[in-house]
Write a structure and sequence with these properties.
By secondary structure, the chain is α/β, with parallel strands linked by helices. The protein contains 18 helices and 9 strands. The strands form 3 sheets. It has a 5-stranded parallel beta sheet, with helices on both faces. Strands 1-2 form a two-stranded antiparallel ribbon.
């Protein structure tokens, strides 16, 4: 059944499927529009990309002047104003686009379910709800699912970040060295909007005729040392390279602002927690371990397989306990007169011996 350009059956199927941002983008490219898009989740990157793609591609530039509205919500924004805007008819165009930004600020957002029960067939309403999810017990989600698309954008897991970097650069016809990729993942973190900005900066910094991002380029343009960073520390710890680990830790002592002890402890805690999971993998093959650790690139597995040969499960469990104790000590519990450097050196000695 097709009504005014909307495929109602398709919308119902896609709302219940595990739809990705690429699925939505491809729909828009094919001009298969839905009356309502509810975009929500902890990761703002994909919410922004989808809403921007709809804003740039549904209407022509001339049509946008009269038929595209962006509402920036505050705590004072009334749901009734959003509904009234959505119920308007387009002017000299087939559709109007209404994009509701920062919808998490709407105090009575569930009242949008009234509009979702009978949406305008000439309106494409995009609801951008960041930093969380709409309460699934309320009426809005099931109401939107019946007529449009509900898309959730969760925070990317640590193991998925290198894949995001590789895929993002591939779309720009650029590659990246493995070490450079991990340097970016460790240093920039899981804020994908920030990561995209840093990657764009690296692409622009590439010398003419080159299309591969190196550790040197990262060091020069992102301010990360290619020799003394969290990734190099993790690699050295996984291999029980005592000399290299201590060299990095002593460098961290000299640059505490760039290498906060709490961040180092957090990285090590995540690594050894993942290592403990690896020991409990039902299948110890490469495929089984990657599934257990939720890794996308085979080279991400190397440190874990190396560490499994260097550390016993019992030692890993003890290290995790020591890391919890160290984190508490850095925050002032049973600290005594120890400096941050003293605490970190004691931790590293415990891990390696």
């Amino acid at each position: 059944m097709v009504v005014s350009g909307y495929s109602c059956t398709f919308a119902l199927i896609m709302a219940k499927a595990n739809i990705t941002h690429r699925d939505i983008v491809e729909q828009i490219r094919r001009k298969e529009y839905q009356p309502i898009y509810l975009l929500m989740g902890e990761e703002a990157y994909y919410i922004d990309r989808i809403s921007e793609f709809i804003a740039d591609n549904v209407l022509t530039k001339d049509e946008q002047d009269f038929n595209q509205t962006i509402i920036y919500c505050t705590r004072e924004t009334a749901v009734a104003d959003v509904i009234n805007c959505a119920r308007r008819y387009p002017m000299m165009a087939k559709y109007q686009v209404v994009i509701v930004k920062e919808a998490q600020n709407l105090l009575k957002i569930d009242e949008l379910s009234v509009y979702a029960q009978n949406p305008m067939q000439t309106t494409i309403l995009v609801i951008c709800y960041k930093n969380g999810k709409v309460d699934g017990r309320k009426k809005l989600i099931p109401a939107v699912e019946k007529v449009g698309i509900v898309f959730e954008s969760p925070k990317l897991k640590e193991g998925m970040l290198p894949s995001f970097i590789v895929e993002y650069l591939t779309r720009k016809q650029v590659t990246i060295e493995e070490r450079a990729c991990l340097m970016m993942a460790e240093s920039v973190g899981s804020d994908l909007n920030r990561m995209a900005g840093e990657l764009d900066k690296l692409v622009l910094a590439l010398p003419a005729g080159q299309s591969r991002i190196t550790t040197d380029l990262v060091e020069q343009n992102v301010g990360i040392s290619k020799e003394f960073n969290l990734w190099e520390l993790r690699a050295a710890v996984s291999n029980k390279d005592v000399v290299k680990v201590n060299k990095i830790i002593f460098n961290f002592d000299q640059n505490p602002k760039a290498n906060a002890p709490v961040a180092t402890v957090s990285m090590l805690f995540n690594f050894f927690s993942q290592l403990m999971l690896a020991y409990y993998a039902p299948e110890k093959s490469e495929k089984g371990l990657m599934a257990q650790l939720d890794l996308r690139q085979t080279w991400q597995l190397r440190e874990y397989t190396t560490a499994m040969r260097k550390y016993t499960p019992l030692k890993v469990m003890q290290i995790i306990g020591k890391l919890r104790e160290t984190d508490a000590c850095l925050k002032g519990i049973n600290r005594g007169n120890l400096s941050d450097a003293d605490i970190m050196h004691e931790l590293i000695f415990y891990i390696l011996h």
